[in-house]
Design brief:
By secondary structure, the chain is mainly β. It has a domain of about 120 residues. Helices cover about 0% and strands about 45% of the residues. The protein has a 12-stranded mixed β-sheet, with no helix packed on it. A hairpin with a 7-residue loop joins strand 2 and strand 3.
């Protein structure tokens, strides 16, 4: 999921939203519930570092249409409830509440328009098969093409995004690590009590606008990052 802007706290992916393995005419979709660590690596146009990496813990529960993202290094927490249309964006004791518009299920699948690039095996004793697909988004924005790598059962491995911004190209890699099925502890979705008294901002926003990942593509409406 661009322009180069400082990416500091939040992530997801929400490009990582999780779906069930049979949606519409798509090749496949992610499982309904997953947990694990996620890492975003993106290039920088300025500064001494060529790349910046952000690591986070993610819980993706599309059975109940909700996602939790937590960045241990900064303490930034996002609780996104798409079924209720509300998101909580928390840093320290500050909580921002905002309406969320729905997400398209097909955004988190390998779409039927995707071109299969290749399949290959990784591992010495226990080999796993991976398949790379390339496709362009329906709403391109700054994103030109995307490569999505999945396992045989459609668990995400890597997403690579290629973008054209102001006549230069940028690449963002989003990797999924230590992924396990299901949600181990439902309490990770509990909303802190001090959030419930926060004033909800007016207007709708797509969840992409509230993630560091999507901020790197020009969405800047996030006072917490």
């Amino acid at each position: 999921m661009g322009i180069i802007v400082p990416v500091r706290d939040s992530l997801l992916v929400i490009i990582l939203f999780v779906m069930w393995p049979s949606c519409h005419a798509d090749v496949c979709c992610f499982p309904k519930q997953l947990e694990g660590q996620l890492s975003m690596l993106y290039s920088r146009a300025t500064g001494s570092d060529l790349f910046t990496e952000i690591n986070m813990d993610g819980s993706f529960d599309w059975t109940n249409k909700r996602i939790r993202e937590y960045i241990p290094a900064t303490g930034y927490l996002q609780l996104l409830f798409f079924g209720k249309g509300v998101g909580y964006f928390i840093k320290n004791s500050t909580c921002q509440v905002q309406k969320l518009s729905p997400l398209s299920d097909s955004e988190f699948c390998v779409p039927d328009r995707a071109k299969r690039m290749k399949s290959y095996k990784i591992g010495l004793k226990e080999k796993m098969t991976f398949t790379d697909y390339v496709f362009s988004p329906v709403k391109k924005g700054n994103i030109g093409q995307q490569i999505r790598t999945i396992t045989d059962d459609c668990v995400p491995v890597v997403d690579i995004y290629f973008m054209n911004r102001n006549n230069y190209f940028e690449m963002v890699t989003y990797s999924y690590q230590n992924i396990t099925p299901g949600i181990k502890d439902e309490k990770v979705f509990n909303v802190p009590s001090f959030c419930k008294s926060s004033v909800q901002r007016m207007g709708n926003t797509h969840a992409k606008e509230k993630t560091v990942f999507w901020n790197s593509f020009g969405f800047k409406d996030n006072s917490l990052v």
